[in-house]
Design brief:
- The complex is a heterodimer.
- Chain A has 9 helices and 12 strands.
- Chain A is of the alpha/beta class.
- Chain B is of the alpha/beta class.
- Chain B has a 10-stranded mixed beta sheet with strand order 2-1-5-7-9-11-13-15-17-19, covered by helices on one side. A 9-stranded mixed beta sheet of chain B has the order 3-4-6-8-10-12-14-16-18.
- The longest helix of chain B is centred in the C-terminal third of the chain and has 17 residues.
- Classes of the chains: A alpha/beta, B alpha/beta.
- Chains A and B meet through α2, β7, α3 and β8 of A and α7 and α8 of B.
Chain lengths: ~250, ~425
Amino acid sequence: MLEIKNLHVKLEDEDKQILKGLDLTVEAGKVHAIMGPNGSGKSTLSYVLSGRDGYEVTDGSATLAGEDLLELEPEERAALGVFLAFQYPVEIPGVGNMTFLRTAVNAQRKARGEEELSAADFLKTIRAKAKELKIDADMLKRPVNVGFSGGEKKRNEILQMAMLEPKMCILDETDSGLDVDAMKLVAEGVNALRDEGRGFLVITHYQRLLDHIKPDVVHILANGRIVKTGGPELALEVENNGYAGILAEVA
Amino acid sequence: MALAEAKQSATEARLAEMSLPEGGCLGTARQAALSRVQTMGLPNRRDEYWKYTRPDTLTTGDVQKAAVFETGEAPMFDEFDRLQIVFVDGVYSAEQSDDLSLEGVQIDRIADICCKDIHWAKDLYGVLEARGQSPVQRPLAALNTAFAQDGVAIHVTGKPSKPINFVYIHSDEASDAILHHVIRVEPDAEATILENGPAASRFNKCMEIDIADTGKLHLVRAQGRDHERRAATHLFARLGTESVFKSFTLTVNGVLTRNEAVLELLGDDAIAHIAGACVGDGDFHHDDTVFITHDAVNCESRQVFKKVLRNGATGVFQGKILVKPDAQKTDGYQISQSLLLDDDSQFLAKPELEIYADDVACSHGSTSGAIDEEALFYLRSRGVPAGEATDLLTLAFLAEAVEEIEDGEIADAIVARLEGWLARRR
C-alpha cells in the first residue's frame, strides 16, 4: 500500500536534514506503529506524506498503491486515499464542521470521478458515524474544532477519517492530550475502521495507545531513519527500557 | 475661517453648474444646505478626512463614464416578498416600482413633498445631515441635501409585513445621480429596508434615519456589481431610548466607494450595529468612514467591517467612537479587518476612541492578514482543492460581519451570492 524508499527530507528554509534515508512499507490491512524519541522525524514524516509546505525531499520516494505521492498536491493525495489525523487539529472559525466535512467528502468524490453525496445521504451517514464516536449534533454545527476540548478535537479527526474512508491512515500522536477514556473512544473508532483494504501508520511516543490499537509491526525511528523493526513486543521494550537502550543496541 | 482659494474656486465652479430643485416645504433646508457647502467647500485631497481616499472624481462637474455591467444573474433579494421602489439612474420609475401603499408605513416621493407646504419630512430632511457636520465636515452630504433629484420619505408607524427594497438600476454610462431618503420610525414600529444595485455611474446618496424610542430599523444594502461606478453615500441615524438600528452593507466591485455613517445614540439603552463586508479585486477602492456618538446611558454600539482585497485593491477604514461625559455604561465595540490575498493590495485603518465617561467598556481592533496557511493545509489535506479552500476561509473571514444581519434568510442570500462570486473569480 504505502511504500517509502530511502526518503531524505530537509527543511526548506534552513539547512537541516530531518529524514536521512527512511525505508518503510505498510501493507494493506496492517497497522504499523512508529515510535521514537523527540526530534527523530516522526511528525516530519507525516507532514511530508500529506504534502505540507516547508519540507524539501532531497532523495528517495514515497508511493501509495504505486502512485508517486511526492509530486501531488495535498488535496490530490487525499483523493488518492491519504489521511493524516493531526497531532494538533486546526481550529477554523467561521467554517461549520458539517459544511467542512461535506465539502471534503464531495471534493474527494468529484476528484475520483464519483457522484457527489446528496445532502440527505450525507446527513444520514454522518449522524450514524458521529453517534459511534459520541459526537453530538452541537459539535457538528460548531465551527471546525473551535472551542473543542482536546478529546473532542481528536474524536473529530476520527470522524473525518470515518467519513472520508481513506486507504492509508496516518495518525500523528493521536494519544497526545487524551485522558484514558478519551483514548479508548478514539482507539475504538480507529479499530472500527481496520479493514483488509486499509493501512495504518500510528505515530506515538508511548506504548499505551498501542494497548488499544494493536499494531502488527512496530518501528523505532531515530535520527531520521528506522533503526529497528519488530512485533508488538518492541513497544513494550520501549516502555520498560526507554529509547536509550534500543539506541545503544543499534548504534 | 476663509477657505483656501483653490477649494473655494473649485466649489464655486461646481455649484455654478448646478441649480436647486423646486423647494416647497423643503426649500429652506435646501438653501441652508447650499450655504453649508459654500462655507465648507467641497472636499479635496488635502483634507485630513480624505487622506486615504481621493475625492476629486466625486466632486467635479464631469462624470467619469462607467460602463453598465451585465451580471447575468437575478437581482439581489429577488427571492423575497418585498415592496420595490425602483430608481433608474437616480430617477424614480413608477412603472417598475410596486404600488407604494403598505400597511404600517407611509411612503412619499421627495419630488412630491417638494410641492407641498406641510409634510413631516420637513423636520427631518437635512436636519441630521446638518447635525452630522460637526465635529467633522461632510460637504458631499450637504451637497446632496441641497441638490437631491429624487428619493423617498418613509414614515414607519407599524410593523409592515415585508421589507421595502430600493432598487437602483444603472442604465446610462454617464449618469450622475443624487438621491436623498428620510426615514422616521415611530415608537414600537419596526421595518426592514433593503437596497441593491449600482444606481449610476456616479452616485451620491444620503439617508437620514430618525428612530423614536423603542423603534427598530434594519438596513441591508448590496452595492454592486458594476466595475466602473463611483459612489459616495452618507447614513445619518439618530436613536432614541431603547431603539435599535442595525445596518449591513455588502460591496462588490466599483472603482470607488466611500460609505460614511454617522450614528448618534441619544436615548438610554439604545443599540446600534453597523457592519460591512467588501470584496475588492483590482481597480477597487473602498472606504468605510464611521462616527458613532454615545450621548446616553447604557447604550451599545458595534462596528464590524471586513474587507477581502486582491490584485492591488485598496480598503480604507476610519472609525470613531465618541463617548460623551454622561454616557456611562457605554458598551462600544469596533473591529476592522482585512484579508489580503496578495502582496499588491493594501488596507489603511484609522480606528479611534474618544472617551469622556469613566464607566464604559470600549474596545477596538484592526488587523490585516493573509489566508491562514495552517487552516488552508488542513482543508486541503482533507481533499478540498486550494481554490475552494481559500473561498471557504474567505467566507469564514467575512462571517462575523454577515452575522450582524438579524434575518437569517437575508443573511443566507448574501452568503449564497458571495459564494458564487468567489467561485467565479477563482
